[in-house]
Every structure is written in structure tokens, then in C-alpha cells.
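FAQ: What does the model actually see?

It sees only this:
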Amino acid sequence: MLYAKTTPEAKRAHLREILTPGAARQFPGTFTPLSAPLIQQKGFDGLYVSGAVLANELGLPDIGLTTLTEVATRAGQIARMSDLPTIVDADTGFGEPMNVARTIHELENAGLAGCHIEDQVNPKRCGHLDGKATVDTQTATQRIKAAAEARRDENFLIMARTDIRAAEGLAAAIDRAQALVAAGADAIFPEAMQDLAEFEAVCRAVDVPVLANMTEFGKSALFTRDQLAAAGVALIIYPVTSLRAAMGAVERTLDVLAADGTQQRAVEQMMTRARLYELVDYEGYSRFDTGIFDFDVPGEQASR
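And it is asked to produce this:
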């Protein structure tokens, strides 16, 4: 009832335990707190909050328009609804190294288990679009050093994302990943890998967990969990999957409503009232009301 029972500190410790090479832990993306318990019920390993998705939910493109406050607030609302660890996209850290340090504090305060910070220039672009530009190695490593030094919980995961593969190739991506690990990164997110061999190469080159981004309509094929596990990947994210699925369903339902003058034909595809009530735990709140909150005010009986 209300929020998850597991503390943020326990979630962070658990995340550290499960991120091992080849584990290929699955973290579906979510943009709403309502889906957090659903992802947990389905047996997944954790939650992922995409910066692109948070921007899109606000009706904005993923070009660095969202603020730290917006991201920390929404990610915290999602994280507190599940006992699973939640990782959030922190873009380029929302500013210079001092801003990056503050970003880590705010995300820790919001209950997140970790974040990733990328090496794009500002304003950033979606990782699977063309025309990205990355900062030099010194700037990229300064961001990670600031993040690692700022954290107060040693288990808060500092992941470094590099987008350099698209412009400079795999060798440059490996060099950048190694520099980011030396700067303090606990994990590496190599964006827009072309094939499984590239994931394998990155996993061999660094001694920290490696993430695979399985986003639809992107640069990477949609490899299976088994394929990525064999490549040595520790963590898989599906950042925009739930948003695309939800918005696709909304659009189809609106088409039915416009065409038929009623939503009847789409009702069987909707989550039922009973399932929705189960998901938000109406029964648990009712038990609380009945067993604890529903009481007589002292002295009221004597005054009647």
C-alpha cells in the first residue's frame, strides 16, 4: 500500500549484486508510476526511466529541454512504486561538473538506484539519431569524476554512456569507455552498437557491467536476451517500448471512437476495471481504512 516497502539503499545494494557480466538483466522502460508495480509483478529485474520518454510525455522532443527537477521528480514518483531498482537517464548531467554533482544528490534523494550520464555536447540528441556530436575525453571524464565524487551512497550506480561510436567507430568507443571507467564509472552504456560482435568487444574491453539498449526503430537490431547474455551484457533496457505500446493503443482506440461513435469495439483490448483496481491495490487501502483509520473519536460516544 502507498509505496514500495524496500528502501532506496536496499534497492541500490541489490542492483550491485545482480549486475554481473552475462546476466542480461531486463529493465523495461516506463513513463508512469502505474506501470512500475506491473513490471514488478511480471518478474522483471528492474525499471528504466528514459530521458527521451520523459521529454516526449511532456510533448517535447529529446533535445535537452527537460530540467533536472522534472526528471528527478518523475523518476522518483516511478521508483517509489516498486521494490525493484530504478535507473534513470540523466542526459549530460544537466550542466557543468558542479551541476552534475548536484544531479547525483537530487537523484539519490529521489530514491533512484543509479543513473547514466552521456558524452554528448549540449543540446544533446536522441542516441539513435544521426548528427550527434560528442565532447572531448577530458570533458566526458570530468562529468563522471564529478558524479562519482558527489554520491553519498557508495552503491548508487554511476553509469557512463558514450555516443562516440556513430561518428568515430568502435575503436574510439572502446577507448572512450575505458577512459570513463578509469574516471570512476561503475558501468558502461555503449550507444548504437551495430551488431553482437560490437557488444562482445566492449564487454571484453572493460571490467565493469555493460548495458545494451534495445530500442525499437534504432541502430541496433532487437537481439534476444539469450543473445546478449552470450555476448557478456549485464543489463538490457527497453526504453521506449511501453510508451510506444501505450500511445499506439491510444491512437487505435481514438480511431475506433471517431469511426464508430463509441469505444465499444476497443473495450476488449483495454485493461479491465478489476485489473486496474488490483494494480493500484484498492483492497489494501480498504483494509487499512477498516482496520486502522475507521475508528470512533474518543469521547464522542459519551456526548451522544
